[in-house]
């Protein structure tokens, strides 16, 4: 490869990186906003003090999804269940991650969720869409979740020294599923001993 071709490639790659940074200086993944999945209005909003100190990982124990139309339907049905059956003010999770690589904004940053009793007011709840008892989310979903966490730190939403847990460490649940729980034990910030 000639020096000229190498130089052109470096310029193109640098330009692409600059465009990506210009589009989102915090390096956030693609987040489908609430309007994008037809979220119902929240009946009550409680705000969090930031930066948030904890992250709790869940799975939704539903079917998994790749394509946006299917994922939007699943997220909307979770919100309906949380609001109508559980009588919560909104969907319980802050964010939901799909195998296809999109993140769906649940209640989003700044807001207290209803995902982990005793930790709601001091954590961000991230749920992977699907049942991950026997298998892992897609490699793309795992990468996107890591990107979302870094995005939260970059925006000042998450403390740079946040602690990360699987939901089963804090409450009587199988979530986030055995396979996913074993995976997150290897992640940075994982804490084997939550304070209950």
UniProtKB/TrEMBL annotation:
A molecular function (GO) term: peptidoglycan binding
Domain (N-acetylmuramoyl-L-alanine amidase): residue spans on this chain: 40-177
UniProt cross-references to InterPro entries, sorted A to Z: Amidase/PGRP_sf (IPR036505), Amidase_domain (IPR002502), Peptidoglycan_recognition (IPR017331), PGRP (IPR015510), PGRP_domain_met/bac (IPR006619)
Entry-linked SUPFAM superfamilies: N-acetylmuramoyl-L-alanine amidase-like
Entry keywords, A to Z: Disulfide bond, Immunity, Innate immunity, Signal
Keyword Acetylation part of the UniProt annotation: no
Record flagged with keyword Signal: yes
Domain Peptidoglycan recognition protein family intervals: 29-171
GO process terms (BP): innate immune response; peptidoglycan catabolic process
Family: Belongs to the N-acetylmuramoyl-L-alanine amidase 2 family.
Name of this protein: Peptidoglycan-recognition protein
Gene: 5571998
